[in-house]
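WARN  no MSA supplied for this record, continuing single-sequence
INFO  ligand: magnesium ion
INFO  echoing inputs
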Amino acid sequence: MSHTPMIQQYLKIKADYQDCFLFFRLGDFYEMFFEDAKKAALELEITLTSRDGGGDGRIPMCGVPFHSAENYIKALIDKGYKVAICEQVEDPKVAKGVVKREVVQLITPGTVMEGNMLDDKENNYLAVVTEIADQQFAFAYTDMSTGETFVMEIKRGWNAVLSELYNRPIKEVVVEQDFATTLIDELKEKMQLTVSYAIETHSNQAITELVKDISDDQLKQTCMVLYQYLFHTQKRAIDHLKQAQVIELAEYMTLDMYSQRNLEITSSLLRKEKFGSLLWVIDRTVTAMGARKLKKWLERPLLTQSLIEKRLDLVNGFYDQFFEREEIREALQSIYDMERLSGRVSFGNVNARDLIQLKRSLAKVPFIKEQLKQFDSKAVQAFSDSMDPLPELFELLDNSIAEDPPISITEGNLLKDGYHQELDQYRDASRNGKHWIAELEQKEKAETNIKSLKIGFNRVFGYYIEVTRPNLPMIPEGRYQRKQTLTNAERFITEELKEKESLILEAEEKSVELEYQLFLELREKVKMYIPYLQRLAETISEIDVLQSFATVSEENNYVRPNFTKDHHIYLEESRHPVIEKVMKDEQFVPNTIELADDKHLLLITGPNMSGKSTYMRQLALTIIMAQVGCFVPAQRAELSITDQIFTRIGAADDLVSGQSTFMVEMLEANHAVQHATEDSLILLDEIGRGTSTYDGMALAQAIIEYIHDHIKAKTLFSTHYHELTSLEDNLSALKNIHVRAEEIEGKVVFLHQIHEGAADESYGIHVAQLAGLPNPLIKRANVILSQLEGTSSNKPLSSKNREEDNFEIEQIAFFAPEEPAKKGKKSADHEIIENLQKIKLLEMTPMDAMNELYQLQKKAQGAKGRK
Ligand code: ADP
Ligand code: MG
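INFO  complex generated
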């Protein structure tokens, strides 16, 4: 049996949109069928039904109401799906056979325009990757909601592409049909991105125009793929797209994926949220545009000193004048998101309320311009000159849009009186008519003497005169015609009333229709201003970021960094910008950080929790802050430009890719060693921990030596291998520093103070003692240590003769079983302890450790139960 014509139509359209949910318009619903329906029912938690579609058996079906579709679409997009909107494109009343339907828009995670699907403070990017040579790629990304596009060449291989993808909110990647499937899998699984295939279409005039200034053919081609995909999905003109901007990666600091993540620049490592990140501390922007711009700056710190100084000068200007700055901040509050508004204007989904907001924003611009002139800084003043408040656009909006318009643009009341003559006439007609009706009511009341008589209106019957039942006898014979009977009243009409009614309704209908037309015309006029609005938005967002830097710098006592040409770094009383903000009761302890050409490697020793990692990170964060143009948390800051930052921090397994900590460690170390220059900063935090002691120490030493001899990058290296501190004797550019734990009133206290030299060798034992471990244990540890120091190899002391070494295992509080193990019969407790002793922690992944712990706990619980 063949399917009904409608289902045939559905299948035909669906064939072109295999990888999307096809929202098939049927009356007031979008329906989905077959597999789409089953999947959507699950994902959206809606009821799966079925219908007879003519084929064998019933067809699975589910649907969402047209008017609330947006929420369902959002839910699917958020999960990374794509949705094809298929509308009826002819009037069902005149259609012969099945109504014609077409896909009018493809909504995908990277091409979202609708306000409620976007995060105000985040861009939403669609990217394209093409392979241009072995391990070389062209990469472009665009934010359709703001119209900006960036394109670049990536010569450092696939991982650099992944870093670009990771470092910004990219939601979807377009690749060409022949792109390597292994890489596509990585995009999907590791990066959790929606992957789409390039669309082969003919290029159009608009696309040619957008790429005309790109000289490199491969970059041009990549941008064309991007734009073709946009036009294919949107199926309409997109006037707000700006020319693609070519990015030379060599002009920006390289912050790979690992560093971006490890340094918690825009989101925290554990919770993946803004709180606890550098962005969280320095974001005091007022506008959504400013918030997005700040993120963009943080994603690409600068390398060119003059550009950095330019930003710093501006920050300085805003910093120096608190009151003027506060005025600016206040004024920025009423600036609407002009950047995204421009997008919606071009897209045709802007309403009268948006335009009112735009008008109010424009109204603030002259004040901001004036206020900027109040600053002493010439640089800040220059902003004032570059701002065009667009008075003609303001006037246009001020004369046209009503002050408090409705959201809907099809129901009238959008425009002011006096804006358009014909509209005024219709409105007069309708107002006069209504006035006449109000007078009629008074007249009828008086003449019939019925006080409760009233004239009402409803959509079905139009205007009517209503008289309550007890008063009916008072109506003179033949005065009204009966129209409708209610329980308590009768409704009447008169010839005259009906005449007036049709005048009023006609005038209203015409005026609503005319208003809609006028509004569309107005929207077209506003469209002409898009490039100007975009430029204004650009300036305002920059001002916003700069005032934000000035505001945090003042509030947190940051200083302006100085850049020197030699490789020197000197941070006096440096602080960690985030930790100092999240600390509650305690004070952050500032420490000085110094690195020089001839001392560019710092080896940091000290017990756990003393502050080694913090010290290392604060240097990296300070450098990043300085190179985006913000002041930094220190008393004095002398810096040289850092071209790249590499990090190996933190012990979290890369769970997504399933690699163990040690593998990740080595990947990150390799990455640093391969790419770092003498202008780079490398942070290696306790490297070598994930493997056995000898391996780890050997690797750690070899890495330090390699950096020292070949790379000469500034390097901070924290380690628990105390032996490494002796490297200072042979590596001239290496310096030992350490953090100590102190004993105060019998408690271990970390003062978090960095000192020169290596940590005391026995600090570990010292801390153990402070922690209250039994004396015989401490004594034994000291014996082992001194013997280790005596031997040239670092072999652990044989455990055989420990009895003679004056050590009694029963005294260790940790392991002491309540009943000592009975000879011959192993108790369960003893078995657990044995297992514990056998565990090779250093060779385990955290997951293995969890499993082992789980097994042991089960055993322990069993043992307890048996007792
Ligand atoms: P380590 O790497 O030596 O184990 P961390 O750098 O992780 O130690 O620091 C541990 C904790 O100590 C931090 O979370 C922070 O709360 C505190 N801390 C570190 N450095 C300082 C400091 N300079 N001043 C105050 N508290 C600090
Ligand atoms: Mg640490």
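Residues 612-613, 685 surround magnesium ion (ligand 2) (CB under 6 Å).
INFO  checksum written, moving to next record
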